[in-house]
Amino acid sequence: MSSIVAEQLSKTFPGEARPVVDSVSFRIEPGEFVVLLGPSGCGKTTLLKMINRLYEPTSGRLLIDGADARAVPATELRRRIGYVIQQTGLFPHLRIEQNIAVVPQLLGWERRRIEVRIDELLDLVELPRAYRRRYPRQLSGGEQQRVGLARALAADPGLMLMDEPFGALDAITRARLQDELLRIQQRLHKTILFVTHDVDEALRLADRLLIMRAGRMVQFDTPLAVLSHPADDFVRDLLSADDVLRRLSLLRVADALRPPAVNEGYGNGSSALTPTDDLRIALGRVLEAGGESLPVVADGQNVGRVTPASIAAALARGERALPD
Amino acid sequence: MLALLLEAYEYFLANQSRFWAAATQHVWISSAALLIGTAIGLPVGIWAARRAHAGQWAINAFGALRLIPSLAVLFLAQPYLGIGALPALVALTLLAVPPVLIAAYAGVRNVDRGVSEAARGMGMTAAQILWRVELPLALPSIVGGVRSAAVEVIASATLAAFIGGGGLGIFITRGYALFDTRIMLVGAIPVALLALTVELALALVQRRLSSNAGMAA
Ligand SMILES: Nc1ncnc2c1ncn2[C@@H]1O[C@H](COP(=O)(O)OP(=O)(O)O)[C@@H](O)[C@H]1O
Ligand SMILES: [Mg+2]
User: Fold this and answer.
1) Closest-CA residue in chain A for B210?
2) Where are the alpha helices (DSSP H) in B51-156?
3) Predicted structure pTM score
4) Cα of A42 to ligand 1 centre, how many Å?
5) Structural domains of chain B, ranges and CATH numbers in brackets
6) ipTM of the complex
C-alpha cells in the first residue's frame, strides 16, 4: 500500500508544442483502486509512465509514500512497483516460472523463497502449478495476462500500475479477469492505478475515477459522484451519465429501503431482494412483479421493501446510504 | 567425369602434405576472419539497433559495402597491405562484418516493443535488458548472420591464393595456370564440402535455438 501525490505534473515531449500531460495534481491514498479514464490519446499512458519513471516529468513533483520519486535510482524504484501492460510483455524465451521470478531475482531473493512464491502466485491467479514449465506462447491470451499479473505481484509491491491490461481480451475473458482482480484486491489491498478507455470497466473496478481530457485532469471522484454530478459536458458524455440504468447499477437496494409494509408476508420468496443487490436489477424485478413493491430479505428476516418511488428517490439523491 | 575425379584423387594422394597444409591455412584464415568479423559486427549491430538515426545510417553504409564483390575487396586491399596472409585476412574480415552486423541489428530491432518495455518497467538495468532479454531473443538471427558470413568467407578465402594468402585456392590457381582440371578440383571440392558442412551445422544450431527459445511457430 503506497500513497501517491502528484504536484503540477507535466510532460512535454521534445519537439512538441503542447504538453501531453498538463499540470496534473492529485493525491491517492494507500489501498485505493484508482482508474484513469479518458479517450484515446489524452495522456493516460504518459501519466502512468511518469509514476515508474519510464518518462521523466518536464516539470512538477511526484511523491511516493511521501518520498520524492527521484530520490532513488529509477531501476530501484521500478522494482518496488508492479507493472502490467496490454501486450503482457511476457518474455517469450523464458518459462512461466522464470517470468514470474524476474523481479525477485533482481532483488536478490534466495532460490527457495522464490520457488515458494511462484506457487503462491500461480494459486492466487488461479493457474495450475503445472504451468510453471510452460512457455508463454503455450497459454491463451487470458492465461498470459494472469501470468502478467502474477509477475507484477511477485515481489509484493505496494503499488501496481496497469495499462489497459485487459484491452486485448474478449468480453467474457475480460469480465472474468476483472472479477479476479477485484477478488485479489480485496485480499491484498494494493494501491492500484489502472488505465482504461472502457467506461464499463472503469465503473466496475474503481474506488475513484481520475478522468482526463487532452492532458488535463477534469474530475477525480467516486464513480457514483462522477455519474451523479459530472464536472462538465465532456464527462457527462464520456460516461453517458444521462443513462439512468448505468447510475442505478452503482446504487444498491440498501440505498432505497423503505420500512416493511404492515400486512406484508414474504410474498413470493424467490423474487425477494437482498440489500446488496444493485438497483438496476431491483428495478427490473419490481417491474416484473407488477410494479408495486418487493420485500427485502437479509439473513431470513424481512428488513423492508423497495418501491419505484423509493428507487427514484435514491436516484435523485445520487449517493450511497451506507459506505461499504 | 568419374575418371577425372579419380585422377584428382590420385593427385591429392601424391600431394598430401601440401594439401593438408593448404587446408589448415584455409580453415585458420576463415575462422580468424569470422571471429574478428563477428567481434566487430555484433557490438556495432547492437549499438546501431539502440539508436534510431545513427543506427539506420550505419546499417545502410554496411549494406552498401556488401555490394562490393569479394575479389574487388581483395585486390583493392593489396596496395595498402601488400601480399600474403595478412591482407587476405583483412579483406575476409571486411566481408564477414556486414552479414553479422545486419543480423544483430535486425535481431535486436525485432524484439517485441512490449517485451523490452516490460523489462524496463520491471526495473532491469540497460545491461540486464541486453544480456537477459535482447541478446537471447536476437540469438537465432545472429547465428543466421554468422552462418551467411561463414559461407561467404570460406568461399572467398579461395581467392586469397591470388594475393599469396595461401589456402585451398592455391590448387585452383595452379590448376588454372597449368590448364589442369584435376588440380583445380583438389581445391574446389574440399572448399565446397567445407562451406556446405558449416552451413548445415549452423542452420541446425539456428533451428535448435529458435525452438529452445520457445519461439518456434
Ligand atoms: N514518446 C512519445 N513521443 C512523442 N509523443 C508521444 C510519445 N508518447 C506519446 N505521445 C503522444 O502523447 C499523446 C498522449 O499519448 P498517451 O499518453 O499514450 O495517450 P493514451 O494512453 O491516453 O491513449 C498522444 O498524442 C501521443 O501521440
Ligand atoms: Mg495508452
Assistant:
1) A93
2) 52-65, 70-81, 85-109, 113-121, 126-128, 135-156
3) 0.85
4) 8
5) 2-216 (1.10.3720.10)
6) 0.84
